[in-house]
Amino acid sequence: MIDIRQSINYVNYLKSEGWCVERIEGINYFIKKFPIVGSILKLQRPKKINFNTIDKLCRKYRVFQIILEPDLAFTNGAVAVSKKYHDLLLHKGYKLSKSPYLPTKTMHLDLTRPLKFKKETRRCIRVGEKAKIKAYSSPSEIKLFRDAWKKSVKFNRYVPSFKSLLNLRKSFPDNKSIFLASHNKLGNIIGGALFTRSLHDYGYYWYGFTNKEGRTSLSQYALLHQGILWGKKQSCKIFDMEGIYDDRFPNKSWLGFTHFKKSFGGCEISFPGYYTKFRLPI
């Protein structure tokens, strides 16, 4: 299966965010230009790595940094394969970063089988369903969604801009994405979640947020459950939780939502990490 970042929809999204994109032999190469200093070249979860193509693009765009995040998902039985590519990248002059861009560990739910959640998870879903859940799609609704998100989190927490969320919706139109919001009895938004899907049978839990009331009411469980059901309805075979805590790259702020995501079950999937290489932009 092909990662969503190698889809045409994601290409359109990054183009709308100011990136240049070269699609060569089915692989997306993302280029961010900076005045005077040159460009950054980013590859995210490609199925194959063509170093000759990378070299050509580096010369064409005067690249000073290459960011490479291989699509080499592995379970315990495939660690040796991951090490093989790790050694190859080190030989090519790349270094493994301690601060990955993409999640290096995630959970995959098999949507081709009946959904079976633990008793406690089912209880949390039932409680959370007391909050009304509505899909948002128009620009004005997405603005309300974003405003509620901004108010729900600490000031230093990243929240995409209104423009970025609109660009995302336009790039993943119709049944390629869905914005869901949960509401209290007064109609105020107390939580939200954004889900996307690729053309290659993957559904993704892209973003999620809840305020204090939303967490108390367990609305996050109902939101995620609805996103999983949406992915199943769209004939997705795999639902990707899009990130859990990884002790190889520890970030303690991820521990809370990792417990939440794991409560829905699934299989743990790991990725090697983020490799980078600096060069003179010639």
Description:
By secondary structure, this protein is of the alpha+beta class. 34% of the residues lie in helices and 27% in strands. The protein is built from nine helices and 13 strands. It has a seven-stranded mixed beta sheet with strand order 7-8-9-10-11-6-12, with helices on both faces. Strands 1-2-3-4-13-5 form a six-stranded mixed beta sheet, with helices on both faces. The longest helix is centred in the C-terminal third of the chain and has 15 residues. The radius of gyration is 20 Å and the shape is globular.
Q: What key phrases describe this protein's structure?
A:
282 residues, alpha+beta, 7-stranded mixed sheet, 6-stranded mixed sheet, 9 helices, 13 strands, globular
Distance between the termini: 36 Å
Class derived from helix and strand content: alpha+beta
Bin the helical content. 25-40%
Q: What general outline do the C-alpha atoms trace?
A: globular
Assess the beta-strand content as a share of residues: 25-35%
Tally of helical runs: 9
Specify the biggest β-sheet. 7 strands, mixed
Mean pLDDT equals 93
Q: Let me know the number of strands.
A: 13
How are the strands ordered across the major sheet? Answer: 7-8-9-10-11-6-12
